[in-house]
Design brief:
alpha/beta; Rossmann fold; five-stranded parallel sheet; 14 strands; about 45% helix; disordered C terminus; binds adenosine-5'-triphosphate
Length: about 450
């Protein structure tokens, strides 16, 4: 884990009745630019902690007045975010275990090894920052309803999405939501439905891939008794069930040419019949459709009716793939950890910087859904409160899964740079893999990384 690189000076309180330890430790920490306080017994330490609210307390265990356990307990009462590191005698297994059980962050044995202490302090302070972020997030932003339904993200592409949700939720206009798999299309559809005019009406999702043509037809429009084998009674379709709420047509690109015609008719005439029926039923539902295919290309290829396409995309919303809004990954991670912890009764709240970096640089073929699943798996595998690297199992995308971009007016060199960066990101900068995928030698790859000044931490790629 990396050292803290913030301008905020961290406060550390050292409590020990042994003057030489107190002095050496304080002196050393001051040299590292921490703001250091010290106390020579437990009670004095607790008083100082109350007054100064340090970020970190390093305390001896055996002390007069109040011992280290008392200090630990009282400091946690003052502010549960303050980390406490216990100094234990080297053979004192028992008190070490007890300290950890009572919520100490870590312990360090006497005689103190300065290098070891430095690492523990850095880790404690980084952890504290992270868990404060998480808990302020949890208490401020997330309640039960929101855990399930909120769209998280502050990337500018997401702000545009929020704007469109706002604009469309106050009318009944037809909306087409486009985006790769797992980018949140259904969530956006629900957000439109539940934030506006229709919020107390039904929201009826229909997955257009799941059914054969004739089943989908009767699913959408209903049927009358005896209209086909097995139809033993009249059945309402989803359009009727949606009434004046919303019908959400998911994977709209998958409907057959015949159903495309029928749907177009419904959109134009605002009425329909049940399969086998003769009565015209008014269509009152607002339509929101979604697709993870490029409908425009399907229209050009003659696989999707152009007239229907234009009817559907009166307003269109484009959801960006996760890899194009990497800046949102940390808050998505916080959001999902809160949700998953709740569901699994776990408490994985700490994300090492290295792991966050790894998550930010993954290609995420399955977008937000894949991120959520990856975190779920990692939390299941975790035995402590840290999201450990070993438990974060990333699925490497096949080269064919990496999306092509449309024609861009850029130079060959820029194109080469972007492509190399994308491949490197996709294989987590495993250069041995990358040079084989790219079909160039390893030295050539190194020299191109050098020439284009590529790095795993670059945020934006074209
Ligand atoms: N911005 C976001 N904030 C919070 N959760 C999100 C966000 N985007 C997606 N999700 C979550 O990711 C998962 C996938 O979202 P959703 O089902 O809406 O995607 P989709 O685009 O409909 O995917 P598919 O094309 O595979 O059906 C859901 O659990 C959803 O709650
Ligand atoms: Mg979906």
């Amino acid at each position: 884990m990396s050292e803290i690189k913030s301008n905020i000076v961290n406060k550390i309180l050292v409590i020990d009745d042994d003057e030489s330890i107190r002095k050496t430790l304080s002196g050393y920490l001051k040299k590292l630019n921490y703001e250091v306080y010290s106390a020579s017994n437990g009670l004095e330490g607790i008083e100082t902690a109350k007054k100064e609210i340090p970020d970190l307390v390093i305390t001896d265990i055996k002390m007069p007045e109040a011992d280290g356990f008392e200090v630990l307990k009282r400091v946690k009462e003052i502010d549960s975010h303050i980390h406490v590191i216990m100094i234990t005698a080297f053979d004192d297994m028992h008190s070490t275990v007890k300290a950890m059980q009572q919520g100490a962050y870590d312990y360090i044995e006497k005689p103190l090894e300065i290098d070891k202490l430095k690492i523990i302090i850095n880790r404690a302070l980084e952890n504290k920052r992270m868990s404060e972020k998480l808990s302020s997030f949890i208490t401020d932003d997330v309640d039960d309803f929101q855990l399930e339904n909120t769209l998280i993200g502050k990337a500018s592409s997401m702000k545009n999405v929020y704007k469109k949700i706002g604009q469309t939720s106050s009318s009944r206009v037809t909306v087409l939501i486009e985006g790769e798999s797992g980018t949140g299309k259904e969530l956006v559809a629900r957000a439109i439905h539940y934030s506006g005019l229709t919020k107390n009406k039904p929201f009826i999702p229909v997955n257009c891939t799941a059914l054969t043509e004739s089943l989908l037809e009767s699913e959408l429009f209903g049927h009358v008794k005896g209209s086909f084998t097995g139809s033993i009674r009249d059945k309402k379709g989803k359009f009727e069930l949606a009434n004046d709420g919303t019908i959400f047509l998911d994977e709209i690109s998958e409907i057959s040419p015949n159903l495309q015609v029928q749907l177009l008719r419904v959109l134009q005439q605002k009425e329909f019949e049940r399969v086998g029926g003769e009565t015209l039923i008014p269509m009152k539902a607002r339509i929101i459709a979604a697709t993870n295919k490029n409908l425009n290309s399907l229209v050009r290829e003659g696989k999707f009716r152009e007239d229907l396409y234009f009817r559907l995309k009166v307003v269109s919303i484009n959801l960006p793939p996760l890899r194009e809004k990497k800046e949102d990954i940390p808050i998505l991670v916080s959001h999902f950890l809160a949700k998953i912890n709740k569901e699994l009764h776990k408490n994985v709240t700490k994300v090492p910087a290295e792991v966050m970096e790894m998550l930010k640089n993954h290609y995420w073929v399955g977008n937000v859904r894949e991120l959520e699943n990856t975190l779920m798996q990692a939390v299941v595998l975790s035995s402590d409160d840290i999201l450990n690297k070993e438990n974060v199992l990333l699925r490497k995308p096949e080269p064919g899964e990496m999306k092509e971009v449309g024609v861009q007016f850029i130079t060959l060199a820029e194109n080469e740079k972007n492509h190399i960066k994308k491949v490197l990101d996709a294989v987590q900068w495993d250069k041995n893999k990358a040079h084989k995928i790219l079909g160039i030698s390893l030295p050539t790859l190194y020299s191109k990384i050098e020439t284009y000044k590529l790095s795993p931490f670059e945020e934006k790629i074209k």
